Request: fold
Amino acid sequence: MAETGPHQHTDDCYAWENIATCGLEEHTHTDSCYPPKPVETTQTEETPAQTTEPQETAPPTEETIQETMETEAGLMLFAEEAEGSLPNVEIKVVSTPKADYDPSKDKFNTEIRIDFRIPGSQFSNQTTYTYDYPEGIEIPDNLLNEDHPFQDGRGTYRFEKVGTRYQVRISLPNILTTTDDVTGFVNFNGTLDASKVQEDGKIVIGDGDSKLIIDSKDITYPDGETDKYDISARKSTDGTIKDGKLTYTVTVSSRKGTPSPISLTDTITADGLVLGTPTVKVKGQEHSVTWNWDAGTGTGTITMDNLPGLGENESYNIVYTYDVTDYPSAMMNPANKLTVKAKDENRHQEVTDEKTVTTSIDKQHTAAKDGKLEGSRIKWTITVNANGTDIAGATLTDDMFGTLSQGTDITVSPTGGYTWENGILKFTGVNGEKNNQTYTITYYTDVPEDDSQKTVKNEATFDPDPENPGDEIKTEKTVGVGIDAAKSCTYDRNQETITWKIIINSKQRDIAEAVLTDDMLSQALPNTIQVAPNEGYEQKMENGKVSIIFLAGEDGKNTNTYTITYQTKANPAMIAKTVSNTAHLVKGDIEEEVTARVKIDSDGSVSKSSGKLTLSEDGTTGTLPWTVTIHVPAGGMPQGTELVDWMGDQNRDDVYMTADQVRKAVQAFQTALGFQPSDMEV
Reply:
């Protein structure tokens, strides 16, 4: 229309011009070639006439998974002030195609999204649109009660918890009146309640037209646990081959329970061991297995597919014993890969645990020699083949074998499986086969007469294969012969004292400059340390320790035999215990160590018994009465006596005494023993 001067425009100032927009010229136009005529509205200053084409979107508040699966729920948005659903307002509930189970929370992690569409004819920017998520969908606490902006800035959305359910509130104040649909989405990384898993393994949230379903094949569980099941296994062995047998113990356990049956596969890479069919026991009863041994690779596999399932907090042991038919004389490290599985076919859930256990088995050839001064003789001991490998054909020689007569000066144990000829011990097969026995060879030699000789050195040689030079094992021992010591002790119950006695240099060799130290000399009662003869020594105290130094005489020697005695107090902590005390006599690089032990007797005793367990009404806790019987020693309860009451299993935190129970227990002890509170320290 033509302008008529300055004025306020009304509808009369506008005309609709119908122009084809199809872009095609050579045809007859139809209604589809023209845009629709807008709805006529009355303009006012409060409500300007505008048309918007919004696409309201909200970014994920946590990392968004790009591939999504839409599950239409046919739900409606509600206006805050409306009693029912708004007409023609549609919403889709969207979840990722997968969910991950988190056993630490017993929930499923997934992305939750809603897509909404509000027809322009029904839209109001004054309305707060709310949507209640189905029961079982949970929104993280850090996203609640905070306004989050849409990407284009035309509104906000807010998560809230109302009762036991979660709600999103959408406000779009920056969109003016429009005839176009208002669309958008809101998504977040949330969790799903594990109780919503059905017996077929699917997660089902909501009901009726508002169901959100995640199929069991789209749910990921950690290997050892699902929402309903878990399984764990461990395996151990001491690595000892005894009588041709090697035993392993497997423990299968569960907190929640498992499906039934459980299958087990255990493959051993034997690393030189040759294994026969194992004997297997489950819960102490023999059980059939499938055993496959590959001699070429040295691997064997145990398979069991019918092991019993486990209930809540249940476990059982599987013990299998291999026949070890052969092994090298070497260090072996057999490795086991153990796998246990249990599958619920209906729920499409499987729990599994896998363990790899490597064990060191030492079958190397060994030989060791020891020597000890016994009076005027030295006792020599040689131990051969401690690891129990085959020594048939091996030989043992010794510096001093040539002077010995087998059967009189030397003993060999066990008595079979060897020959003795020309000072050489040769090991033979037992019963014409291998010889895996461990041998102990013992013999004595005299202490040299020469006082100037301070030590005697002796060497033995073990040769596993005399035809293979370079594999010999040499073992030697040096024994000091210049000094000797012996120690003993006695306990006096009446005096509550221990008397210690040390005899030095009974062979009357030169002990000049030798030093005697003793663990308890510093605790000796006053004036109880006595040294006889009372000459040729000095006593020193340094850093809280007492030592006795033997001095040289005019000839530069000290050949005295000394007796040292002293007494210590038998304190209450020693009652009914064995007390040991060690003395050291050192001269130069030669040391003699002697130890004495004594049992501290007591006519007192303590015993403990339990009564009947009484459970609470709900069965979650219980009370167990205990009775402690104390027989007080005839002389009365010694000062400093400690009474320690270990209660329950120290490895568990669900067995305990309350503070009130502890107080009552202490009061009961005080009453029974006739003590005042000041007499006891708790």
